[in-house]
Design a protein that fits this description.
This protein has 614 residues and is of the alpha+beta class. The chain is built from 25 helices and 16 strands.
């Protein structure tokens, strides 16, 4: 959409920034500006400011910034053209078309859309009339109430050519109705007929709620069970998601989106209060649909039936998504109990059961691992070698280098834990070390060490209460690759000093104080998903008890790693030159290693086997 600066300035001028934002945010005047709680991140103290005079908003907490168009784009998960069209309609402005061809195409699309809207209204009327009694009974048996039926504009297409007759009377051209997919043509007699007949009708809308196609479910016996409109000017099956217009607001407010398999699943979830459900249109998720999902939320939840077909669909989705992953953009998965879909689960077990399943969504990496384990036996050395090659190949399919490296490390670690580690240590699971030498290269080990150290610091920032009892351990932490990571060591010292002065400080206050001390750039590198993936205990949502236990364990691993490397270096020096001085240094380092390992075991609260991260 190429729009002139003059048009955009006029659009901004016609709409009050405070008026638009105050629909979503409770604003209070502060001098010439307005302030409120930021709608784009959780906060208790207002850091979101609106300057009507200058025409922009800014959040000093999360950095969100923009004008009225940017606010609508961000708050309603709209693209730039969608936001402009939404605001232009509100302001009473016509969005200019940039060429005669585009104007003609837009006019044609508008006419097609008008015909589809007329068809939708006709189908709705048919459902509520005598002809639609069987279809209405079917929908009510499926548990849908009248409000939901009206909200999703469900309808009925009777046998015969009732729609054709109605639309021709309305003045629509037969050729246009064919192009809109509302009519079909008999090849032998060259006669047109209603494309949908004897079916419950599910209108398919684009992201802005405009009807672009229909899906029809046959009543009684007949094939195909579900029939979609033919693709055309407005309808591209692989680019659209059923229920998207209804789910936009919920996705923007909750930061979640649930992808299910069918129309009824979407409708049932919305009726049950899950206004974040969408579905592909009878096909596996496409790259375009994944892109649309990621434009709305970072980690959409894919919800599949518990049968074999559902598992195949999950596998296809994972395979399609892997090459497309970007930092912060992934998928999560839930599997329903065998024999259930969202519709039946809600009816039989209630809303709470569905909520519990969604809250247990697993990350993509878990599904990838489980699929490989299930598909490739590794019960012999030869099969394990093949399995190792398989998981390496999986990681290589990811295009983004950072995520590719992270997946490679995670999968190799799982391989090591499953096939190379052996039995659990007595009384507890053995410590989760990284893979042995040969599975990780030097650079991989450096990344692993760095992520571990960043995770320890991130956990302290997100859970300052951890410092109570761990201050001595924190004081002894030395970042890997010093002096390259001197900034991390400075951050560690600042955290300790701040906590010592304010032992009751909370996470938000600690983070803001550290930013004020000049650590904003460092925090931006460690309070990120890449760190939370490598060190889940550091995530702000992790329970404090679990975070404390896992912090101690990770600290112990890092300490063990450092002690091991120090002794290895002493052994190399001794091998190169056996002198009384080198023997003395070797003995001192051996004692220091023993001391470090003992300290690691104490902080970890239990004896753990000596581990090797490289």
């Amino acid at each position: 959409m190429a729009l002139s600066p003059q048009f955009l300035d006029e659009l901004r001028g016609r709409l009050g920034l405070v008026e638009v934002i105050s629909r979503r945010v409770k604003l209070q005047r502060k001098g010439r500006e307005h302030a409120g709680l930021c709608p784009f991140h959780s906060e208790k103290t207002p850091s979101f400011w609106v300057n009507e005079e200058k025409g922009f908003f800014h959040c000093f907490g999360c950095g969100a910034h923009g004008d009225v168009i940017g606010f609508v784009m961000r708050s309603e998960s709209l693209s730039f053209p969608e936001a402009v069209e939404r605001l232009a309609a509100e302001a009473g402005l016509a969005v200019p078309q940039s060429s005669p061809q585009e104007r003609a195409r837009a006019e044609k699309a508008k006419t097609l859309a008008t015909a589809l809207e007329s068809a939708c209204a006709f189908y709705e009327t048919q459902l509520q009339g005598g002809a639609g009694r069987e279809a209405l009974d079917y929908l009510r048996r499926r548990g849908l109430d009248d409000v939901t039926i009206a909200r999703f504009r469900l309808g009925f297409a009777s046998q015969g050519n009732a729609l054709k007759a109605h639309l021709l009377r309305e003045g629509y051209d037969e050729a246009l109705l064919l192009e809109a997919g509302l009519l079909g043509r008999n090849a032998e007699r060259q006669e047109t007929y209603d494309y949908f007949r004897g079916r419950v009708i599910f209108p398919i809308a684009d992201g802005r709620g405009r009807i672009v196609a229909f899906g029809g479910r046959v009543l009684g016996e007949g094939t195909p069970k579900y029939l979609n409109s033919r693709e055309g000017e407005l309808f591209h099956k692989g680019r659209m998601l059923y229920g998207l217009a209804h789910a936009r607001r919920g996705a923007a407010e909750e930061g979640r989106l649930v992808v299910v398999e069918g129309y009824m699943d979407v409708i049932a979830l919305h009726q049950a209060g899950f206004g974040i459900a969408v579905a592909p249109l009878g096909t596996a998720l496409t790259e375009a649909q994944l892109g649309e999902l990621w434009r709305l939320v970072d980690e959409p939840i894919l919800c599949f039936d518990g049968d074999a077909a559902g598992q195949r669909a999950a596998a296809r989705a994972a395979e399609r998504a892997l090459p497309l992953l970007k930092p912060g953009k992934s998928l999560r998965f839930v599997t329903l109990p065998a024999g259930e879909d969202p519709d039946t689960l809600i009816q039989r077990q209630g809303v709470a059961a569905m909520r519990e399943i969604l809250e247990g969504a697993r990350p993509l990496i878990d599904l990838v691992w489980e699929l490989e384990v299930a598909a490739h036996p590794a019960d012999t050395p030869e099969r394990r070698a093949r399995f190792e090659e398989r998981i390496a190949a999986v990681a290589k399919r990811i295009q983004d280098p950072k995520i590719r490296d992270s997946y490679a490390w995670d999968l190799r670690q799982r391989y090591w834990q499953r096939f190379r580690r052996g039995a659990k240590a007595k009384g507890r699971a053995a410590a989760p070390p990284g893979p042995p030498a040969g599975l990780l290269g030097p650079r991989d080990v450096e990344i692993l060490e760095l992520r571990c150290y960043q995770g320890l610091l991130a956990a302290l920032i997100n859970h300052p209460a951890l410092l109570d009892g761990l201050e001595e351990a924190v004081a002894s932490l030395v970042p890997p690759l010093v002096p390259a990571n001197r900034d991390l060591d400075n951050l560690r010292q600042a955290i300790l000093k701040t906590w010592a002065a304010q032992p009751d400080i909370d996470s938000g206050a600690l983070e803001n104080h550290l930013k004020g001390l000049g650590f904003r750039g460092v925090l931006d590198r460690i309070l990120v998903k890449e760190v939370y993936v490598a060190a889940p205990f550091a995530h702000p949502a992790r329970a404090i008890e679990a975070a404390a236990e896992e912090w101690r364990h990770s600290y112990a691993l890092l300490l063990q790693r450092g002690a091991r490397l120090d002794q290895d270096e002493a052994e190399r020096e001794l091998a190169e030159d056996v002198t009384e001085e080198s023997l003395t240094r070797f003995d001192a380092r051996r004692r220091q290693r023993a001391s470090d390992l003992e300290r690691a075991r104490i902080i970890d609260r239990e004896e753990t086997p000596d581990s090797k991260l490289g």
